[in-house]
Design brief:
The complex is a heterodimer of chains A (166) and B (213). Chain A has five helices and seven strands, in the order H-E-E-E-H-E-H-E-H-E-E-H. With 166 residues, chain A is an alpha/beta fold. Chain B has a domain at 101-212: Immunoglobulin-like. By secondary structure, chain B is an alpha+beta fold. Chain B has helices at residues 5-30, 42-60, 64-95, 135-142, and strands spanning 101-108, 115-123, 126-132, 147-153, 157-168, 174-185, 190-199, 204-212.
Chain lengths: 166, 213
């Protein structure tokens, strides 16, 4: 009985999770392209990573969950980078200097970009921070996760593995 | 469609077809025998021995039906590409008719004294384009590539175009320069080129806006 209710709970959670992913208007559509300046001063364009699986993490210094998520994404990048995964961190902080300081302190191994304009936020329907978007090898958005809780990185890994196999 | 899969699939289909015909041939050869348990005639016994040779020959050259089908598919694909191209041209003509069309192109020569980072274009004091360049894009420009940075509609008459070039100048210092041009938009399409060149005697980059008639 207890096992059955647990199973029902898991199924409900999976259903909620699936509906949250399916609810994103971005899923199944080409990822809006952008070019942004990076922490190291180099410009990066999303479309140049066509052919690789790209994880875009929109974060902000003021979003507490970002501080937990960034180290988890760094571990994912370290593990799957050689398999063809590209992780891009996009800061949406208006204050670029403070965001730059914060990003330097986090010491992540993946590129950190700074978005100070309104266009990308509008294109990706950014409302809650952090937000993670997975783009497949053909440049189509396949997964969107708004917010972050401990353990969400396991879902990211499952999705990444699936996309890397395609 | 994966092009690497096509020969395999054709060979497979051909193999299946050969097997099918061989099976029919065996059935026909066996049918005239009157006895309920017919002993294999020399002709029937010889038939399976000759079939693999025929199968081998058939698998080397696909049947004409499949060849025609493949040609038809290729033809349809070609038509789709042609249609797509025509649609693109029609869309461009519709959105940017020649009588109002203004196109701005960017080219770079040498680039020893300037590392391009971004370009902003204003027409009549209104920002119409802002482009951030990656290392690969700059490399493509330096190899002779020309980028269409802006395509839009402008009324007939005089217009002022101002371009701001941002990047690293000589000795790696931050560099921001502007160039302006007043052009007369006539009835036909207008083409303007932004050129970044090296001024060797001055050891400085040079930014020129050229009006193509």
């Amino acid at each position: 009985m207890r096992g059955g209710s647990r199973l029902a709970g898991v199924a409900l959670a999976a259903l909620i999770s699936t509906s949250a992913v399916a609810a994103s208007p971005l899923v199944g559509k080409p990822a809006p392209d952008f070019a942004l300046k990076g922490l190291d001063g180099n410009n990066l364009r999303l479309s140049e990573y066509r052919g690789q699986v790209v994880l875009i993490n929109f974060w902000a210094r003021w979003a507490g969950d970002s501080r937990v998520e960034i180290p988890a994404l760094d571990r994912i990048n370290t593990t799957y980078h050689r398999a063809g995964l590209v992780v891009l961190g996009v800061s949406v902080d208006e204050d670029e200097a403070h965001a730059s300081e914060f990003a330097s302190a986090m010491r992540v191994s993946y590129p950190i970009l700074f978005d100070t304009g309104p266009r990308i936020g509008r294109d990706y329907s950014l409302r809650t921070m952090p937000m993670t978007v997975l783009v497949d090898r053909s440049g189509v958005v396949r997964y969107v996760k708004v917010g972050y809780k401990r353990g969400d990185d396991r879902a990211f890994v499952d999705q990444i593995r699936q996309l890397l196999r395609e | 469609m994966n092009p690497h899969r096509r020969p395999v699939s054709i060979a497979l289909r051909a193999g299946v077809l050969v097997w099918f015909w061989a099976a029919i041939g065996v059935a026909q050869a066996a049918a005239p025998a009157p006895a309920p348990e017919p002993a294999p005639t020399p002709a029937a016994a010889a038939a399976p021995a000759t079939d693999p040779v025929a199968a081998q020959a058939s698998s080397d050259a696909p049947p004409a039906d499949f060849k025609t089908l493949d040609q038809e598919v290729q033809g349809v694909k070609k038509d789709v590409i042609e249609l797509n191209k025509d649609l693109f041209v029609l869309e461009e003509n519709l959105l940017f008719p020649a009588n109002t069309q203004v196109a701005v192109y960017l080219s770079m020569d040498v680039g020893t004294f300037f590392a391009l980072d971004s370009v902003t274009i204003k027409i009549d004091n209104k920002e119409v384009a802002n482009y951030l360049y990656t290392a690969r894009e700059v490399s493509a420009l330096l190899k002779g590539g020309v980028q269409r940075i802006y395509l839009g509609n402008q009324k007939v008459g005089k217009h002022e175009i101002v371009a701001f070039f941002v990047g690293k100048g000589p000795h790696g210092i931050d560099y921001r320069r502007g160039a302006a041009l007043t052009f007369d938009k006539g009835i036909g399409a207008k083409y303007v080129e932004l050129k970044i060149t090296d001024h060797v005697p001055k050891h400085q980059p040079e930014f020129v806006i050229k009006d193509w008639e």
